[in-house]
């Protein structure tokens, strides 16, 4: 039990860290971050495909008939079908389960192998979906896609956080969100053109998921493992050589000693999942593993991404206009991710969370009020109000793009000590995928029954999320990843929780 405290001696040498940005480091970051493109492409492509008439006629004829019946009018319940939403949410249930297997692979075989395994599964899912002739094949394909996302979402944020120098860790980790957003945007562009390829355009959209999977697998062959993972596996000489290459210097002694200290503590932990429940890990569990990944989905963002074409069609837009509107929201996500990369290590995580919370609340209120006054009685919405709704949604997406989107993966990945890092990330992905699947499964039904009230619900949840950040999350910018544990001992609330382990800590440090 006390073995975990060895990790707390790590990070003391941070002032002596040496290094520079090298081409080898840049290559590792680019290839590693491509894992986010799998998640992003699926988010974008599934939302577009579910609004394509050819796809609906093949697999969901009842939805197609209802859509045609309301083609010239607005209707909240146009797409309310639980089997249709299962097509989307089944992937996330599969990712939820697979992430625990990914935890073992990530910890014992390395982050690189886990990323490559995810790409193979995603490739198979794209192949099956492109060839689907019935709903069963669609669901099986989605399960393979979900397994791939479970592996990549488990390993990629860890990979980027571990390989990055601590002063730019925030920006490097957010490459995951940037490639996710680019994946969404590319999927939206693909859907825009394949929607005109009758009757097989949807097959091309789904099948092109194999392309990023191939790129990641091939890139993974040349991808270096993180020094943290190599040390954890006992491959010390190899870890030192990789650290020299990614830092561009022979003087890596200080950082390497910190990695060894952290790894020594990690090996002393026989059950990392059980260790997550210890008082000293309570802040990471509540904030990083449970709170942030759940709130990331409860913001309502993925509902917008899943069903942006559906929402815009329900608002009276035509099919082409709906997909075009999705291109706009996808672009806002990319812009938000770039803004976040440039500011997260300067302004800090808390500032971006809080500012974006205010902007997202205001946007949801505008959407809800507009819909409450002018939408849902069979009357087509005016062009002016339609523009207002699109603008409000874009401002919402932009704020999410520089806050809960990237920070929802960055902050959890940097909170956990090495001893519980892989296990903690598995819980992060599990909670994230559970709420992603739940929102995907329930959103269209909620839109049908709550109507404009669903956006007020999201606004209220964002208020709670923002208070959670203000009260419980300390600032982590530019801190070495092995020093973050010190924040809990100084925090107004968490210091009372982690203090319960102080007696054990004093005993252990005295022995050593």
Features:
single chain; about 500 residues; mainly alpha; Growth Hormone, Chain: A; 26 helices; globular; disordered N terminus; disordered C terminus; transmembrane helix; STP/PLT_plant; monosaccharide transmembrane transporter activity; symport
Description:
With 512 residues, the protein is an all-alpha fold. The chain has one domain: MFS general substrate transporter like domains (Growth Hormone, Chain: A), CATH 1.20.1250.20. It is 75% helix and 0% strand. The chain has 26 helices and no strands. The chain is globular, with a radius of gyration of 23 Å. The two termini are 14 Å apart. The N terminus and C terminus are likely disordered. It is a multi-pass membrane protein. Belongs to the major facilitator superfamily. Sugar transporter (TC 2.A.1.1) family. This is Major facilitator superfamily (MFS) profile domain-containing protein. Keywords: Membrane, Sugar transport, Symport, Transmembrane, Transmembrane helix, Transport. One of its GO terms (molecular function) is symporter activity.
